[in-house]
Amino acid sequence: MIIIPPEQLNQDTLDALIEEFVTRDGTDYGVEEVVLARKVEQVRDQLKQKRVLIVFDPASEQANILTLEQYQSLSDG
């Protein structure tokens, strides 16, 4: 997997990727419902803090957002 720095993506592409990530089926945000704009902002903050990463998988030709821990476990395996 290749890490893609968010600043290398077109703003529209980054927005679409984050929105797709936060609206996926099965995504659990806890007891309180959070509006889409807030979820997107939370992911943006996590990207800035490098707590989540944008990765591209050349085999599947798909981009995804992973936590740092998820990325490390995939890289180690």
TrEMBL record:
<dbReference type="InterPro" id="IPR010648">
    <property type="entry name" value="UPF0270"/>
</dbReference>
<protein>
    <recommendedName>
        <fullName>YheU family protein</fullName>
    </recommendedName>
</protein>
<comment type="similarity">
    <text>Belongs to the UPF0270 family.</text>
</comment>
<dbReference type="InterPro" id="IPR036685">
    <property type="entry name" value="YehU-like_sf"/>
</dbReference>
<dbReference type="Pfam" id="PF06794">
    <property type="entry name" value="UPF0270"/>
</dbReference>
